Structures are given as C-alpha cells and as structure tokens.
Amino acid sequence: MDKERPDIQAIIEQFADALKNQGDIDLLVVSSDFAQMPLYRRYEVLGKALARVMQPIEPLACTPEEVQVEKPSKASFLYDVLARQKTVEYRL
User: Fold this and answer.
1) Which residue, of 2, 8, 37, 41, is most buried by count of CB atoms within 10 Å of its CB?
2) In degrees, to the nearest 5, what angle opens at C-alpha 53 toward C-alphas 52 and 55?
3) Residue 64: how many CA atoms within 13 Å on its side-chain side?
4) What are phi and psi for residue 91, nearest 5 degrees?
5) SS3 label, residue 38
6) Phi, psi angles (nearest 5°) of residue 53
7) Range list of H helices, 4-86
8) Where are the domains of the chain?
C-alpha cells in the first residue's frame, strides 16, 4: 500500500474507540489498494490491524468498483452495511 495513505490500523483503532460498548461492529473498508490483492491478502491486511484493537469487528474489504458494481442481495453483509442508517463514513 502507498505510504502516503493513512494507516488502516490507526483508522480502525479510532473507529473502535468511538464505538465502544455498541455491540459488534460491521466495518466496510473501501480502498483502491485492494484492487491488486487477492481476497485472502485483503483480510490478512485487515486482520493484522483488527488483532490489535480487540473489539468485535466484522470487516469487509472491497474496492470502490466492487461496491458500485455489486448488486448485493438483501441477505448479504454488503447490503446490510450500505443500507444501515447508522453508517459512519470516513473518506480519505
């Protein structure tokens, strides 16, 4: 990942601190950096950051194109995250 971009771990830590005692957290991370990564590598990157947070976070890693193109079913995690009214969005 580009060294100019913010550290994903720092963002996740700030997000988790802000939502302590809110139950489990569904986290959609959208980054163009994921475009060249296989799925297992995306979760490896997120897993390293999440391991230090020690919060119940359920991550989903997508590229901007995947979020735009995908027509998620109502039973999918992506639909759930995108449809929620209590969505917190960080744009970097």
Assistant:
1) 8
2) 135
3) 5
4) -110, 130
5) coil
6) -80, -35
7) 8-18, 39-53, 64-69, 77-83
8) 23-83
Per-residue confidence at 40, pLDDT binned at 50, 70, 90? very high
- Provide φ and ψ at 25, rounded to 5°: -120, 125
Closest CA to 63 of 35, 88, 91: 35
Tokens of 74: 């109502």
Q: CB neighbours (10 Å) of residue 77?
A: 13
pLDDT confidence band for 11 (50 / 70 / 90): low
Give residues with Cβ within 8 angstroms of 24, minimum separation 6. 56, 57, 58
Please, which residues bridge with residue 31 across strands? Answer: none
Which residue type does 66 have? E
Q: Average pLDDT over the chain, rounded to whole?
A: 73
